Amino acid sequence: MKKILIYEYITGGGLLNEDLTSSLMNEANMITASINDCCHKSKYFTHNSFRDYRLSGKNDKEFIILRDNSKIYDLEFLREYDYVLPVLPEIDMELYEYVKYLEEHGINAVISNSDTIKICSDKLKFYKYCKKYSLPSINTYEKYNNSLKNKLVMIKDRYGAGCSYNEVVKNTKNNGKIGNNKVIQPYINGDDFSISIYFTKKNFKVLTVNKQIIEYRNNKARLQSIIVNIKHNSYLKIISLISSIKNIFPGLYGFVGVDIIVNEDAIFLVEINPRLTTSFIGIYDTIGINIIDLISSKKVLKNIISGKKYYIHNYD
Q: What pTM did the predictor assign?
């Protein structure tokens, strides 16, 4: 049996010096519970998980209780594991900084490389990179411009994760900045989906296509729920898009979530999340794949046809 260490940022000590009332806490708890469940069922792994001392589960023998973050960066300790699985948000480049640290010290992490994470964590840089290689992403700007005049636009956190800040407004301005670390995009009307994928060094496996239910309150968007493992008429186009993404982002590795908007026959690439995302929670219950075992399995994954769906409600 191999050993894997799970570091989920919100529940695993990333907020030790902050209040625990993060808007991502519910999502983080679900992800942590799902990963631990998969580890318990694993054929190949034993595991440990970092755990903030203020949270429940102190008596769970797999939890490593943290009162400071020294263990998170303890290289001697990290090298006791065959793999480290970091699940950190892209906000403030947290994921990039930690993966860069692991790379510099030769820690074997199940995660995309830091150069790829750096591009995917910055919406403006991501758009420019996609445009360079003709990926169908959404036009992204640092300030208002004439092409957006009198149109609905989305204002987003430049370095945000998911719907950390997504506001829909009608652009009546011709110029000017939109605020620090914000970007502006034309509002794309369509259906929102995420794709759960496992990338190896040479290939990829699309696990599920998932419907995202986006809720708007006071013009602010938030991910209300997810339906995991839906059938989609554009499946072959989606596979083609992921194949292009693999070629253009060869540093993608491990668990990756790709967000898209589908408008009739057009597919718009919203973002690439170079980490394990909420949608992975439903993989085992829908297609019967233990995501943790994907890390060690040498078998070629066959397409699994399953009509099972899994509903994730993202907020209490």
A: 0.92
